[in-house]
Amino acid sequence: MTTRLDVGVFTRPVLFDVARRIGAFAAAGLDVREHPVSSSPDQFRRAFSGEFDAILTNPDNTLAYHFDSTNPLATTLAVEIVAGIDRGLGLTLCAHDDRAIHRRRPRVGVDAATSGFALLAYALLEQLGIARDDIEIVTLGSTPRRAVALAAGDCDITILNAGNELVAHSRGCVFLASSTDVGPYIGTVLARVEPSARAEDETRPQVDEVERDEAVVALRTVLLETTERIVSGDVTDLVVDSASGVLGLTDEEARRHAEILRDDNHGLIRGGTIDSGSMETIISLRERYAPSMVTSMLRAGWTELLASPPDHPPTT
């Protein structure tokens, strides 16, 4: 028997494509379908409506939508982090050209003004001497959309990853700073809105919730096992071919993306661990650039989002 899982993503993940091509999804009885989203509000709205069984998103987004009703949907959701997926996959602050950071009030493209990648962008800009009050924020949506906008000159600066930074660079854009300049970071987690909290999408095949829950657990297992094969170098040629086909990269760019996937500081997370050092970075960014009445709760409360215990207690 095969269980269908619908997953909301920003960029088509090479990890999923490799898992599919090595037969791991089929062996686990999974029919996994990735659906591009236009923005993080769009992603969480569709997850809440029952359209998605799981999502690939930034962990800061899970904090914002779980704890803070001032998020773009103006409500809190029962969000669960199923596994850590990657540390950013080349998460880089990029500019349209060398002159961008010298412009008066440069236009900074973001998914949403208080999304996780946006907060990281503000911190990296500040390190370059550009305060948040000195930029114009342009809401452009998902990472692929921002990459197109940056290359076209519709914004001066944005933050890109998952191969989009390589595409932008090939079109003349320049790299300014890396996520590691701020500290340890998790770029993507596998998450879901808990079944009891979401609506039922009547347009989708009806599946028993226990069966769907088991399928999400199976998805986690497949992704972690595929991660091990990618990081070990066991399927590098397949990864390069996948990156070329899925992301539209040249052979050289695809090989660079394969290297990033294996990198300890930027790549896939072995074991799916959500480490407290990275969460400290993420929470500190939210406290600094998007404070609210609930940000004080995040350090004590973020572990309640985890489907399994973290590697050790959160930093205090």
Task: Write up this protein.
Helix content is 39%, strand content 17%. The protein contains twelve helices and ten strands. The chain has helices spanning 14-21, 24-27, 40-48, 59-67, 116-127, 143-152, 164-170, 209-231, 236-247, 251-262, 276-289, 298-301, and strands at residues 3-9, 30-36, 54-57, 79-86, 92-95, 107-110, 136-139, 157-160, 174-178, 188-193. Helix 5 links the parallel strand 6 (107-110) and strand 7 (136-139). It starts with a strand and ends in a 15-residue tail after the last helix. Residues 311-316 have low confidence and may be disordered.
Instruction: Report the CATH superfamily of the largest domain.
Output: Periplasmic binding protein-like II
Mean of pLDDT: 93
CATH topology of the largest domain: D-Maltodextrin-Binding Protein, domain 2
Number of strands: 10
CATH architecture of the largest domain: 3-Layer(aba) Sandwich
**Number of H- or I-type helical stretches:** 12
Name the quaternary structure. single chain
Beta strand %: 15-25%
Strand line-up of the largest beta sheet? 2-1-3-10-4
Helix percentage range:
25-40%
What structural category characterises the helix and strand content?
alpha/beta
Form type: globular
> What kind of sheet is the major sheet?
5 strands, mixed
Poorly predicted runs of 5 or more residues = 311-316
The structural domain count equals 2
CATH class of the largest domain: Alpha Beta
Task: Determine the N-to-C terminus distance.
Answer: 46 Å
User: What pattern of helices and strands is seen along the backbone?
Assistant: EHHEHEHEEEHEHEHEEHHHHH
Q: Which radius of gyration do the C-alpha atoms yield? A: 19 Å
Protein name: ABC-type nitrate/sulfonate/bicarbonate transport system substrate-binding protein
Organism: Microcella putealis
